[in-house]
Amino acid sequence: MSNFFSRFSKALDGAVVSGARANARRFGRRSALAKVGGFLVGGAVASTLPFDRAFASSAPAGGGINDDKSCDYWRYCALDGLLCTTAGGTKSSCPVGAEASLVSWVGTCHNPGDKRDYLISYYDCCGKTAYTGAQFCLRSEGERPGYSMGLHNDINWCMSNANKGYHCTVALVVGVAE
Ligand code: ABN
């Protein structure tokens, strides 16, 4: 009987020791240091990678309500998209090779120049892939939540065209708001 207890006790000791070693390998100080080191090196490498941050930026390109390459330009008050003025087009014409969407989003913007309000139609230019070097603007004044498509502007209006690829957005004056 005492032989049995002696063998049982040795087996138990062995199991406890190998379990403790395995835990030390998994959760020990050296393992933790290796993981922290991996994060630090990974973070340093990741921060040097050439991420394109221009697309996500909603900061003004140059600034100014009269600069049509800036998100602050007065006609862009309800715009959500890439400025065609920074993608090879103008504020009212699509770049060569892109065509205007058949439907558009309409907003009302105040022109500080003549102190009048204007109806602005935002047409998407379609058929070319989005140019990530273009200035992205998100102002969307007057937009309502997306429960109704006509009230929401985070929409690819190229969906109405045969070529549905979104390229950029133009802003046409279509009337005076009285
Ligand atoms: N109307 C600009 C746009 C295009 C694609 C996706 C969201 C918004």
End-to-end C-alpha gap: 104 Å
Shape summary: globular
Helical proportion?
25-40%
Number of strands: 5
* Side-by-side strand order of the widest sheet: 2-3-5
Round the mean pLDDT to the nearest integer and report it. Answer: 77
Question: What structural class should be given to the helix and strand makeup?
Answer: alpha+beta
Order of helices and strands: HHEEEEE
Low-confidence stretches: 35-62
Question: Helix count, per DSSP?
Answer: 2
User: How big is the Rg?
Assistant: 30 Å
Please, could you describe this protein's structure?
- The chain is an alpha+beta fold and 178 residues long.
- The protein is built from two helices and five strands.
- Strands 2-3-5 form a three-stranded antiparallel sheet, with no helix packed on it. The protein has a two-stranded antiparallel ribbon with strand order 1-4.
- Strand 2 (99-111) and strand 3 (116-126) form a beta hairpin.
- Helix 1 runs parallel beside helix 2.
- The longest helix has 26 residues, at 2-27.
- The radius of gyration is 30 Å and the shape is globular.
- It starts with a helix and ends with a strand.
- 25% of the residues are buried.
- Bound molecules: benzylamine.
- Benzylamine (ABN) binds at residues 80-81, 124, 154-157, 166, 169.
Please describe the topology of this protein.
Elements lengths: L1 H26 L1 H20 L31 E3 L16 E13 L4 E11 L9 E3 L27 E12 L1
Antiparallel strand pairs: 1-4, 2-3, 3-5
Helix pairs in contact: 1-2
Bound molecules: benzylamine.
